[in-house]
Amino acid sequence: xxTLRDFDLLVFDFDGTLANSASWFRSILPDLSxxxxxxxxxxxxxxxxxxxxxxxxxxxxxxxxxxxxxxAVYVRKRAAKAGAFPLFDGVPEVLRAIAAKGVRIAVVSSxxxxxxxxxxxxxxxxxVTSWSCGAGLFGKAKHFRDVLRETKVAPARALxxxxxxxxxxxxxxxxxxxxxxxxxxxxxxxxxxxxxxLLFVTVEEFQAFxxx
Length: 212
Description:
The chain is an alpha/beta fold. The protein is built from ten helices and six strands; from the N terminus they run E-H-H-H-H-H-E-H-E-H-E-H-E-H-E-H.
């Protein structure tokens, strides 16, 4: 099994991986559905959708692809006006442990860089050596390439860490190693089906990985 020493760079997703923004996103879903004309799922259906890949979720909720850009821009603006999203317990310690071992940290997120920096705070933001934010729902591969170009790290020496199937797919497209985390949006069975190189169910499991 891979250890932290196998990598020169860890590329983190933000929402659902570093920060717990799920409750906020659920709170704005009724407004989003009304504003952009898609079906609003109830809490029970949301749990079911956590087992589905993104394109299947879009089909079920009747979200046309051309609206994704507009939805993403609106969500980022709403997030900028919200309070800083809370980090998952243990995330600050994980980031410090990674940096202390000389492994670089990057953030690739659909959220805005300002929103991510606000949640991380000055100390943790200073540990991040490369940022590529504002990615589209299916546009993360380009942002992974930008980070690799900036850091000059070979894809095989970089590990993508994210909570959704699309994170795994985009990272694999670029040649990164992949880690799925099951404390965010994606459920463990769905992530397992995507066959990431590594899978962590809890932050504590990831802390143990970072400590090795």
